[in-house]
Design a protein that fits this description.
single chain, 277 residues, alpha/beta, seven-stranded mixed β-sheet, 10 helices
Length: 277
């Protein structure tokens, strides 16, 4: 009885330090963004300074730290950390470029093509029929689908809205009118076979995809060479996705899918701050 009581009295929360592999530029950008926001809304104070709040939110996004853990380590409530996270995600997402502006910028800088691809961000499986549309048969996982555009070097320039995991690449591209936006600025796009049929202009295609074989039609040596050249040209888009998925909060989303679009666009801004420093 005495030993149990002594053991209970000796318990206390443990706090540990963790390295955050981000640049000072990113932390300062987020802190300055919060300071300007507080000035606009005339908020006189927060329980912690903007720089510290920025560090906490970045730890949540980069390492997928649990809100309760970060709250306990900084003597604040879990709801306060959640409010800080959502507030800064909204501020960052507002800085993400629109599709038409992103393409105009690439064209103005002398670019000729962009790279386009789709990917799936895994989410927790939810109960009920409403979650069935989030199941991707291709990836055999529940998740959210989104498109991304990069320049020729793999730098992310735009991210689409998050959609149910069963969404096809072509469906998402048609919904965002990507073909029309590319034609408006005179840019082409390199894409994988998932985008076949999106651009039916045979004489002057905007979206270039590879050749596919069938049971009755084998690829010619020239078509195989063209596919290899296209694969090399498309490789940087995978680097763009890799940089984005370094934010471990995307490992398996636990947030409301309705908020996923804002989160992805906020991470786009942070990724470009890190990659282009």
């Amino acid at each position: 009885m005495t030993n149990t009581k002594e053991h209970a009295e000796d318990t206390f929360p443990l706090v540990y330090q963790c390295r955050l592999p981000l640049s000072t530029r990113t932390v300062n950008h987020l802190a300055d963004l919060l300071r300007r926001h507080l000035k606009v809304i005339r908020s006189r104070w927060r329980i912690l300074p903007p720089g510290k709040i920025a560090m906490i939110v970045l730890a949540v996004l980069r390492h997928d730290q649990r809100l309760a853990d970060m709250a306990g380590g900084n003597n604040v409530s879990e709801s306060t950390v959640r409010r800080w996270r959502d507030e800064l995600i909204g501020l960052l997402a507002a800085q993400a470029p629109r599709l038409d502006r992103a393409l105009r910028k690439v064209a103005k800088q002398g670019g000729e093509v962009v790279l386009i691809d789709g990917t799936l961000i895994r989410t927790q499986r939810r109960t009920g029929k409403a979650d069935r549309r989030n199941y991707s048969g291709k990836h055999r996982n529940h998740g959210l689908h989104f498109l991304a555009l990069t320049d020729e070097n793999g730098r992310l320039i735009w991210i689409s809205a998050a959609r149910p995991g069963r969404t096809h690449d072509n469906t998402a591209a048609r919904h965002d009118h990507i073909l029309n936006h590319l034609r408006a600025v005179g840019l082409g796009a390199l894409a994988d076979l998932g985008f076949r049929g999106l651009d039916n202009d045979i004489l002057d295609p905007v979206i270039v995809t590879g050749y596919t074989a069938s049971r009755t039609h084998k690829l010619t040596p020239g078509q195989k060479t063209a596919n290899r050249v296209l694969a090399v040209g498309r490789a940087p888009v995978e680097h763009g996705f890799a940089h984005l998925k370094n934010w471990r909060i995307l490992t398996k989303l636990r947030t409301d899918p309705a908020h996923a679009t804002q989160l992805l666009r906020a991470l786009l801004v942070l990724t470009n701050l890190e990659v282009n420093r």
